[in-house]
Amino acid sequence: MSILADIPFSLLELAPMREDASVAETLHGSLRYAQHAENVGINRFWLAEHHNMPGIICSATSILIGYIAGGTQRIRVGAGGIMLPNHAPLVVAEQFGTLASLYPNRIDLGLGRAPGSDQVTSRALNRDDSRAEHFPEEVSELQSLLGPRSQRQQAASAQVRAIPGEDTNVPIWLLGSSLFSAQLAAKRGLPYVFAGHFAPRFLYDAVELYRREFIPSAVLGKPYVMLGLPLVAAPTDAEAEHLSTSSKQRILALIRGNEMWLKPPVDSMDGLWSEQEKSYVDNFLSLSVCGGPATMKHRLEVIVQQLGVDELMFTNDLYDSEHRLRALDILMSVKQ
């Protein structure tokens, strides 16, 4: 039996949008995708928060979580993540307390400290460039707001209560692509997610730091690491390589500051990018799991053996919606 058999597989959704599609069509497609994920045994379905990015339709993250949770039955649904500097902790607690009340034991709250946008958009969202510096304090505030009332009665902040939210104890995860969140997650005894799907540089250092400095907490007795990875799954390596050009075009648009519509695959990227741009895109996607079933299985087994991760979370941004669904079938087959 593969070592992957006991590793939960989860998904991170950015609601990728084609230029010829509508917002409604895109979001209906995300729900269909989540329903198929639930049917094949995917563990979690998280939505990322991004703003002012044509082609990525997940800015109203908590609303979309409710939409996906309402259209599914069992799969855990959550944020991967909420960019806390963009929101007052009380508002986040109220939103996720509401979700947790409607969908008990199914809602996760991943938190990040990046803006999920450029600096101009960030200022439009919160008008305070220093908010990220207070991330540890705001994580504590959010934990308190979602926790039992009895633990807050003596604190001055107890005058402010998240209703709903209080005592829902929504599971909180810390997300990151550097050492900062790894260290904070270890200190707080929280589960940690490394964003290997777009920023692989500090992966090994961050995971090692998190495990080394982890302090058990009331919510987690030992370290728990989830790793985000880009996925391009197809019946053959050749087809997967062809389909991967959609993601490559998207990252190319990102580094050029262009709109990020999901584009159809091309026969070759030659002529579409410079050598410097190719290098940047390749580094961005260096942890990509791309190929047919045998190639994918080997790649994932190596990653799990090297890092000892507890869970894997995949982005799966293929141009054709049927190919996205097929990719999940192929992904789950490598567990056997």
How many strands in all? 9
Determine the mean pLDDT. 93
The fold-level CATH name is TIM Barrel
Q: Which radius of gyration do the C-alpha atoms yield? A: 20 Å
Q: Can you tell me the CATH architecture?
A: Alpha-Beta Barrel
Name the helix and strand elements from N-terminus to C-terminus, one letter apiece: EHEHEHEHHEHEHEHHHEHEH
Strand content: 5-15%
Structural class: alpha/beta
What is the helix fraction of residues, given as a range? Answer: 40-55%
**How many helices does DSSP assign?**
12
Strand order of the largest sheet: 1-2-3-4-5-6-7-9
- What gap, in angstroms, lies between the N and C termini? 6 Å
| Global shape | globular
Q: What kind of assembly state do the chains in view correspond to?
A: single chain
CATH superfamily: Luciferase-like domain
CATH class: Alpha Beta
The biggest beta sheet, please?
A: 8 strands, parallel, barrel
- Tally of separate domains: 1
Poorly predicted runs:
none
Protein name: Luciferase-like monooxygenase
Domain Luciferase-like: 22-310
Pfam families: Bac_luciferase (PF00296)
Family: To bacterial alkanal monooxygenase alpha and beta chains.
Structure notes:
With 336 residues, this protein is of the alpha/beta class. Strands 1-2-3-4-5-6-7-9 form an eight-stranded parallel beta barrel, surrounded by seven helices. The termini are close together. It has one domain: Luciferase-like domain (TIM Barrel), CATH 3.20.20. 42% of the residues lie in helices and 14% in strands. The chain is globular, with a radius of gyration of 20 Å. Helix 1 (23-40) packs parallel to helix 12 and helix 9 packs across helix 10.
